[in-house]
Amino acid sequence: MEKARKGEFGELPIEVPRDRKGSFEPQLIPKHQTHWAGFDDKIMSLYARGVTVREIRSHLEEMYGTEVSASLISFVTDAVADEVKAVYLAIGITMAGESALCVLDALEGDG
């Protein structure tokens, strides 16, 4: 049986095994829960570590047994793009061969 669970940034279809006796207890999403709290945080955590959209899709399918569209992942990551802060560093080498931090600058937005 396929159902949709709502994340912070969209819906995610999941497959639930049929259970005629009612003895199945879901481990990831409790019964009657429609919102998958924290799922978007998992996507953002992977993305922040430099994991590609393709790798995120593969990881989520492997870990949770559900297919996530590239557009959902992009929607989640784009939704926080305004909060991203880019930090630029300029490192120089002194005449003595030691490294030195020359510039440290932080920019808001598109980074």
Structure, briefly:
The protein has 111 residues and is an alpha+beta fold. The chain is 29% helix and 28% strand.
How does this structure look, described?
The protein has 111 residues and is of the alpha+beta class. Helix content is 29%, strand content 28%. Strand 1 and strand 2 form a beta hairpin.
Residues in helices, as a percent range: 25-40%
Low-confidence stretches: none
Biggest sheet layout: 2 strands, antiparallel
Count of extended strands? 4
- Number of H- or I-type helical stretches: 3
- What is the mean pLDDT? 75
Following the backbone from N to C, one meets helices and strands in this order, namely EEHHHEE
Radius of gyration: 21 Å
Overall geometry: elongated
Enumerate the strands of the largest sheet in spatial order, edge to edge or round the barrel.
1-2
User: Which structural class matches the secondary elements?
Assistant: alpha+beta
Distance between the termini: 42 Å
Strand content: 25-35%
